[in-house]
Amino acid sequence: MHETGTAFPARPARSGAPRVVVVGGGVLGVSTAAHLARSGVRVDLVTEAAIASGASGRSLSWLNSAGARSDAYHRLRTVAIDRYRTFAARTGLSDRVRFDGGLTWAAPGESHRERHAHELSIGYDSVWLSRDEVAAWAPGVDVTGVAEEGAVFNPGEGWVDLPLLVEALLEQLRTAGGEVHTGVGRAKPVVAGGRATGVETASGATFDADAVVWATGPWVPRDLAELGVHLPESSPVSLLLETQRIDHPLRAVLNTPRVAIRPTPHGTFVLDSGWSEQEVVVRGDGEFEVRGSTVAGLLDEASKVLAGNPRLEAVRRGVGPKPVPGDGEPVAGELREVPGLHVLFTHSGATLGLVLGEFTAREVLGERVALLEPFRLERFTTATR
Q1: CATH value at residue 45
Q2: Looking at the domain assignment, is residue 289 inside a domain?
Q3: Strands 260-263 and 253-255, bridge-based pairing
Q4: Residue 142: which region, alpha, beta or left (left: phi > 0; alpha: psi -120 to 50)?
C-alpha cells in the first residue's frame, strides 16, 4: 500500500478545538473530514452504509473544465484540477490520478468547432485534430468512428479513480485522529436553538458537534426538505459499467456521442452514456432495473471506438441517482436557515472533490472562502425574489 499519511502533515488536535461531524462517505465527505482532521479538528465521519458505496462508486470521474460554463464555475474547476496535480505529486498516487488528456467529437449533424473556439478564448488547453491526427495524440482510438470534421483533444484533462482516492483520504483522516463510523443507517441533523448541534442516526448512535457537514450525495435535497429548506435539483439515474481486464493502449478519457470511456488502475475500462441511463427502469419501490440489452448496447458502443474493436464484458455495474443541482452548478456553504450546517451538493464531485473538501474545512473553521460565493444555496431564493 502507498504511504499517504505523511504526505500532508497533520496538526495535533488543539485544546478546545471544535468537534465536527461530517455525514457522507463519498469523496466530498471524506475529503472534507480529512482536511478538517489535518487542521487539528476533532472529526467524526458518519455514513449510512459503506465508504464510497453511493455516487462516488459509480462515477466516470473525468477531471475537466471543458465546454462552456460560467466564469466562476470554470475558475473553481481549474483550481480543483490543480489540487489533483499537487495531491498526486505529494502522495505518489499517480496510479489513482492520471492526466493523459481527454478526446471528444460531435454527433452526426453537430459540430464542436464553437466549443474549441470558446476553450481557446478562455485559455483552456484545446487542440483541434483531424481524423488522421487522432492516433498520435490519443493512442487506442479506432479513428474510423471519429467525426468527419475531426475531434477536440484537451491535453490537460485526466481522470481519478474515486474509490481508491477515497481510500487514500480515509487513511489520512485516521492518521490525523479522525473517527470513522460506517453502516449506521440514515442520519439526520439535530437542530437546537436554531442551529445544528449534532447528528442522530437510524442505528441509535448520536454525535454532538459544534458544526455539521452534510454531503449525502443525491439525498441532500431530501434531507434538507425535512428541515424546511428547498434545494432545486434535476438528479437523473446514473449507470456505470466496468469491463474485464484488458490489455489495451487507451490512456485518455473518451467522450463520444454514444459512450464515454476511461481506463482504471486495475487494467479495466469504465463506461457510461446519456442514452443508457435513460433506459434504466426505476421501480416504485426505489429499486432499479438494467436491461441486458442496455448493457450489451453500451459494451458494443465502447468496442466500436476502441482500436482493435475488442470484445468487452461487464464485470461490475453501478446504478443509482446522480446528484445534479437545478441549475447544474455546485451548492456549497453554510446554510443561512440553519447556522452550523454546511452543505455540499454537486454533479462534479470527482473534479471538485479535493478543493470543496479543503474550502469547506476552511469555512467550518470560520473563514469565508470567496471562490464559493457564487455557489451558496441562497442564490436560488435570491433569484426567486
Answers
A1: 3.50.50.60
A2: yes
A3: antiparallel
A4: beta
How many CB atoms are located within 10 Å of the residue 194 CB? 10
The CA distance from 328 to 173, in Å, is: 30
Give the domain range for residue 115: 100-157+234-321
pTM of the model: 0.95
Helix (H, G, I), strand (E, B) or coil at 334: strand
Residues 347/328, Cβ–Cβ less than 8 Å: yes
Same domain, 244 and 138: yes
For CA atoms 128, 129, 134, 137, give the dihedral sign. Answer: negative
Residues 6+ apart with CB under 8 A from 88: 94, 96, 97
Write out pLDDT tens, residues 99-150.
999 999 999 999 999 999 999 999 999 999 999 999 999 999 999 999 999 9
Question: Quick one: cell of 385?
Answer: 425574489
Residue 8 cell numbers, joined: 500532508
Residues 6+ apart with CB under 8 A from 273: 258, 259, 260, 298, 301
Q: What is the mean pLDDT of the chain?
A: 94
Give the amino acid at 228.
Answer: G
Cα(first)–Cα(last) distance of the chain, in Å? 53
* Among the listed residues 219, 184, 208, the one whose alpha carbon sits nearest the alpha carbon of residue 43: 208
Residues 167 and 313 in one domain: no
In a domain, 93, yes or no: no
Summary count for the chain: helices (H), strands (E): 10, 22
In the three-class reduction of DSSP (H, G, I as helix; E, B as strand; rest coil), residue 343 is classed as: strand
Residues 41 and 18 sit within 8 Å (Cβ to Cβ): yes
The gap from C-alpha 167 to its chain's centroid, in whole angstroms, comes to: 14
The closest alpha carbon to 81, from 167, 29, 7, 158, belongs to 158
Shared domain for 105 and 33, answered yes or no, is no
Rg (CA), the chain: 21
CB 309 within 8 A of CB 142: yes
Q: pLDDT for 324-366, tens place per residue? A: 999 999 999 999 999 999 999 999 999 999 999 999 999 999 9
Whole-angstrom Cα distance, residue 103 to residue 81? 17
